[in-house]
Design brief:
Radius of gyration: 13 Å
Largest sheet: 7 strands, mixed
Number of helices: 0
Shape: globular
Number of strands: 11
Length: 125
């Protein structure tokens, strides 16, 4: 089975930081585009950030592009999402997902084949 496991979520105050991790089992992330997505109560799932299999193409949602950083560690078979300057609006369940690599990676939920279980991120005072 191909599995993705997210970790690193939790509760932090506004302005704080968290680093989320997505670890793959049963396959290597080297062959996939990896995306981070989030879904807040009452809202549709939205793209946060995506990274190509090479690691050279990065995509960020407009609301996070200056605050979040996506990266991948080939040796650890892990993708990270470093989140800084967190805001209450960032509160959501965060999911990582994998898509078969393409020439031009996309960052839309419908394009992704494998999903993790999600990790809760809560920003509050």
């Amino acid at each position: 089975q191909l599995t993705l496991v997210e970790s690193g979520g939790g509760s932090v105050q506004p302005g704080g930081s968290l680093r989320l991790s997505c670890v793959a089992s049963g396959f290597t992330l080297d062959y996939y585009t990896i995306g981070w997505f989030r879904q807040a109560p009452g809202k549709e799932r939205e793209a946060v950030s995506c990274i190509s299999s090479s690691g050279y193409t990065l995509i960020y949602g407009d609301s996070v592009k200056d605050r979040f950083t996506i990266s991948r560690d080939k040796v650890k078979n892990t993708v990270y999402l470093q989140m800084r300057s967190l805001e209450p609006e960032d509160t959501a369940v965060y999911y990582c997902a994998a898509a078969q690599t393409t020439v031009q990676p996309v960052c839309e939920p419908s394009e992704y084949d494998y999903w993790g279980q999600g990790t809760q991120v809560t920003i509050s005072s």
